[in-house]
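Data availability (excerpt). The following record was deposited with the supplementary files.
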Amino acid sequence: MLLADLMTLELAGAAAAGLVAALISGFAGFGLNLVMMPILAVLFSPVEAIPIVTIMGLVNAVRMLGGTWRLIDRREVLILGCVSVFTVPLGAWVLINVEAELMRRAIAAFVIFFTVIMLIGWRYRGPRNTATHVGVGLLAGFLNAGVGIGGPPVVLYQLARDGDPAVGRANLVGFFTILALVTLIVFSFEGVMNETALVRSGFVLPFVLLGTWIGMRSFNPATVHLHRRFALGFLLAVSVMIVVIG
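Predicted structure:
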């Protein structure tokens, strides 16, 4: 399939969404998938959008893996990643079988939920052990395949850890790499990851890389709080609009 066969206003909109999402992620420090997912779910069907967003997330994670590898808590990340294998297929089944309009609203609702949690500054204060690793990994696997946003539960979980914050960030990079790979493998078996998804992803990817580069170059530690508030406000506005208007 040639790119020319897929060139539509929706694909141009996806490229623009990727650019904006990457800009926000670059200067706010989070949320590439979280920003892209509700927009692409409107431009395409959710079952078409999630593979694209997953590929973008994988590329973004691999790009950062080299600089964070030595800091990763391998035991924790392996537990999180291994258990996600069991719930990614369940999430994929929901994605494929639930009506597209309902899935769009569900995606937007999940984004609103996690955005509000981040806006109010809620932090997980409970235990961190093998059992909680398993629970978070299972939830992330289901959400990643089902609604394309498996990251927030793990982000909130890693923010609760003691010690060097760089280790938490490294754990996120390691886990997101595993989660994206598992999700794409399952999608391939289910027929969700197909030639159309690959061609669309190839078109969107340069815009994501460009936006990430510009966003990181524009990053200013003195204004990071304002950047994050803007990003969360943008997410909330887009997601509420999707839920209300559909």
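Summary of structural features: The mean pLDDT is 85.
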